[in-house]
Amino acid sequence: MSKVLFEITEDNLDTGLRGYPVGYCTTSNVDPIKGLFYRNYPVADIAYWEPERAIHLLYTGNDGSKGEIEDFSNLLQRHAICAPRVIDHIRKLPNEGHPMQLFCAALFTCGMIEGQNDYRADCLALIAKIPEIAAAVINYHAGWGESKPSKPELGYIENFVHMLNVPNASPEELIEVFKLFNVLHLDHGGGNLSTFVGKAVASGLQDMYGSIAAAMSALAGPRHGRANQDCLEFVEEIQGELQNDVSPETVEALIRDRLANNQLVFGFGHAVLRVEDPRATVLYALAEKKYPDNPLVKLTQILRTIGPKVLAENPKISNPYPNVDAISGTVLSAAGFPYPEYFTILFGLARTVGIAVQIVHERCIAREGKGLPIVRPKYLYKSSPTT
Ligand code: MLT
Hints:
Blueprint: E1 28-31, E2 35-38, E3 41-42, H1 43-46, H2 51-60, H3 66-79, H4 84-90, H5 99-114, H6 119-142, H7 156-163, H8 171-184, H9 193-203, H10 208-219, H11 227-242, H12 248-260, H13 278-290, H14 295-311, H15 325-334, H16 343-365
Antiparallel strand pairs: 1-2, 2-3
Helix pairs in contact: 3-6, 4-5, 5-6, 5-10, 6-7, 6-16, 7-8, 8-16, 9-10, 9-16, 10-16, 11-15, 12-14, 13-15, 14-15
This protein binds D-malate.
Residues 188, 192, 270-271 line the site of D-malate (MLT).
EC number: 2.3.3.16
GO molecular function, one term: citrate synthase activity
InterPro entries: Citrate_synth-like_lrg_a-sub (IPR016142), Citrate_synth-like_sm_a-sub (IPR016143), Citrate_synthase (IPR002020), Citrate_synthase_AS (IPR019810), Citrate_synthase_sf (IPR036969)
């Protein structure tokens, strides 16, 4: 007899599959209280690892020796450069929409030219190439000119920053903060929307590039990955309203006012977590250490205390604590990247890793290598007006 994991009642229907166990995730786990683990490592413990080491951990399941990580970095470097045609085609796509739309189209474009219809090979190649794709999309969308020629030997994020033509920024500063952002966003369990969508699309045997394009389309939604953009815009809006009058009292009054007017307060709560997101805790500490005088950093520190205090008064809110988006955009902005429209691309650059590795598991390893069946949940019929 197999164990009952979850009793489904009518109250569980139409709740976004919240909390339903649907399978196994081998790369990472999100515990409501302890937060995110990559394999068995709490994310806070490895936040300052080099991205190549953290990617190697997710990709292979082990923290490699120095030599193993070097070999893995070399492997990524050998696959890193996109066929020039990929970048030429990206630069011919329309660029007036949101950059995430361009990113999705760029992934399909790359798949048409570089795809091998082999989940394992495409997983490695895509992880290696995604910095060049992301840099091409941002440079083209922002009107920052053509990317500089890729130099994979610089390192994964070092090369991304080298290719990206961010105006007036210190490359060292960007590298430091982008590395941390990258490691913190590589994976988040199996059930976050983009990962679930990517794996569901792959379950119909769509290839890796198409599945990741679908996943990135899911990530682009403001309730998911684009929340980091909305959060910084929210913090900037509050700063604009309060000007030189930022204090715990004025921020609290403004938050109460917004809630009373049914306006959203961004950066708090999470579907799974019931504590402050440990990724946010790491970023708050960095912000406090590196940018203590930045006005947006000061404001996010006040919001960190005032937000939970006010939101916890509403008994319907099960998690009033800050999530990663509450602070990630402020740190990016303080480091010299004040471009909220591109924050979700940075998220996608990182998350492609976790999703691609999970897809390989579901397609090539699970069920003794047979792979999981096509995703096909059941809906109950109910008559209702449709419009
Ligand atoms: C994520 O990193 O994917 C977000 O925190 C959303 C989630 O886990 O559902």
